[in-house]
Amino acid sequence: MKPKAAVEQQFAIERYLEQHGEEAWAAALTTLLRSVHEVDKAAVQIWFAFYPLGLFKALRDAEDPEELAKQLLLQGQYRLNEQIDSSHRFLYGHRFWPDVKKAVEGFAESFAGDVRLADSIIQIAEQVASNLRVESTLLVGITAVAFMTVQQVGLAAFRDAPGQMLLDSRHRRKSAAQVLRERAKDDSQGLLGFLRTVNKKWTVTFDENDNSARYKMSHMQDLAWGAADDRSRNWREIDPRRIEGPIPVECRSASCGTCWVGVLGGAEKLSDVAAREGKQIKKFGYIDTNEPKPIIRLACQAQAHGAISIVIPPWNGVFGKYLKSRGAENT
Hints:
Elements: H1 4-18, H2 22-33, H3 38-50, H4 53-61, H5 65-71, E1 75-76, H6 97-109, H7 117-132, H8 137-153, H9 155-160, H10 169-172, H11 176-184, E2 201-205, E3 214-218, H12 223-228, H13 235-238, E4 260-265, H14 275-284, E5 296-298, E6 308-311, E7 315-316, H15 320-329
Parallel strand pairs: 2-6
Antiparallel strand pairs: 1-7, 2-3, 4-5, 4-6
């Protein structure tokens, strides 16, 4: 049993994090991204889009969270406390999760009060990087993820998680430079392929840590149609939302939000966001941006003209309008 003082310190870190809302976290991430290695810049932003603080607070504060989840059409595994060790497997920094988790727990036990969030994250990342003799830029992103995880699940649940790194030895050994090279590489189209204007095929990787998690699609085909041709597994058995192929899909018209994906590499090789997709991804609550090629896309709308790497979130819903109305009520 831990001493009373240690328990109070644990509560102190939770109270401290509770003071940081979406705006505070957005500011911290802006600062932190300058110190995040290129291999994880997109991945970190995708993770924070996959597990938005606003949605967590809405469900936590609701009188009937399950009823609210139904109202927001939430499907799949949207609760972070059910995937503390696995939610960030697509980050390169996941390789260092056991050490980062332990360091964050130690920070919580000795938490001394008011410090800048970004500074604390960088300090821990540098400390762990020094111990492991790796670049600190590789750990800043996963450390930020650890802090947000504590904020959403609580320190007790965070501590109780096994702290496992969920990669096999082959993928664990890949360098950041190797991962970046693989993301940038396009498929060869054969002899004189550069002259070909039709019948080009591109590879879509949907799990960089599984060599079988990829499919081929035709030039300028949308990601969802390409995925539908992948019958390599019983996708519906893996996830009921996956009625055909690895990407969950229902409507194919940007109406349901089921097929949202994060773009780890190759965002520039996708068609620009059209007006309907841009409007809908804001309505769903996935991302609020006017960028032509953002890191969050609807697979049924994004057409590819090159090989890309994506990550598929374990859930979907329609909560953007609700969160905006909730924010207006609190102002």
